[in-house]
Design goal:
mainly alpha, Sufe protein. Chain: A, 3 strands, Fe-S metabolism associated SufE, about 150 residues, globular
């Protein structure tokens, strides 16, 4: 993967969105919203352990875990999100990032271009303000990966 490419899973999702009509894009976004995994029990009721993404129009919280291993190649990133069910667009963006990034290595996540949210062709289907929220999610994910990989 070069600095301008998306990692495999995220690239496949981006291709699906770019090839879809605007109506289908919204349907795909709803599917990602529905597929966003629930927060694990260890974070239930503990939103203070998650980071709020203020740029999102609805409350969204996230936390990143980086598996610690003596072999850097074996470390994996895991993403967890909390967003209200009545916010399908925000949940959909979180679902895309979860499906596209969860399980990748820290290096793969950090190599994701900052403009990745603009590569889904969603600008015609959702407002720029909403896309800014997805970009903020990605920025926070990458920051947390850097911090937790260095620890």
């Amino acid at each position: 993967m070069t600095a301008t490419e998306l990692p495999g899973p995220l690239a496949e999702i981006a291709d699906d969105f770019r090839s879809a009509s605007n109506d289908l894009k919204l349907q795909l976004l709803l599917e990602f919203s529905d597929e966003l995994p629930a927060l694990p029990e260890r974070y239930a009721g503990q939103l203070d352990r998650l980071e709020r993404v203020d740029e999102c129009q609805t409350p969204l919280f996230l936390v990143v875990e980086v598996e610690q291993s003596s072999a850097a190649a074996e470390r994996r990133v895991h993403l967890f999100f909390d967003a209200p069910a009545e916010s399908p667009t925000t949940r959909g963006f979180a679902g895309i990032l979860h499906a596209g990034l969860d399980g990748l290595s820290p290096e793969e996540v950090l190599a994701v271009p900052d403009d990745a949210p603009m590569r889904f062709g969603l600008a015609e289907a959702v407002s720029p303000l909403r896309l800014r929220g997805m970009a903020a999610m990605l920025a926070r994910i990458k920051r947390q990966v850097r911090e937790k990989s260095a620890a």
